[in-house]
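FIELD: query
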Amino acid sequence: MITGASRGLGAALARELAGQGARLALVARGEEALGEVVNAIRGAGGEAHAIVADVGVKEDVYAIAGAAAALVGDVEVLVQNASELGAVPLALLADTACEDLERVLAVNVIGPFRLTKALVGPMLLRGRGLVVHLSSDAATAAYPRWGAYGASKAALDHLMRIWAAELAGTGVRFLGVDPGEMDTVMHAAAIPDADRGSLARPEEIAGRVAEMIRDDTLPSGARLEAGSWRVAR
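FIELD: result
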């Protein structure tokens, strides 16, 4: 399962994993954009299913888990990619509306927590599974105007580490991945005057994340940086 799969890294990772034979449950809010990703994968001979839902809404999370079970069976790999940037232009913390912070936390922290809770049980019963949290360098560096997003990603990183510590030895692993700066719609919204030529392509980062997913020697609780990862191909 990949959340936030209708564009950017989520869509690129879906295409990458489908090409490697994965059966995919793809989650996003935008029905039309998600449908285009699913149709492209199916047209290339892969298997993908669309689940139109919002991970930031409590009731949607349990519907996501149920739909995935019906479409692809037990989820073996969960990629928590959906992210909320917050209101743009990005604001100083003193100018950030409480409701905007609540929405960012709902999508970037509480939603992933709920989705892991909903899907981790069968993983524990099987004695294997992988949950990947997509992080950001804003989780470790204090960038002005990135307060809501940065705080949410820092919380997501630590949530990953606690899951890993609590479920150590069960066969269920957790990884955090900082994809670095990419040429995406979200990045353009945050930094509209950025030099796009200096940004990584989502397809390039997707290849690296896919390699991380396949590498079962990576220790649970590790935080990895895609920019320094070398794909062995």
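FIELD: remark
The chain has a mean pLDDT of 94.
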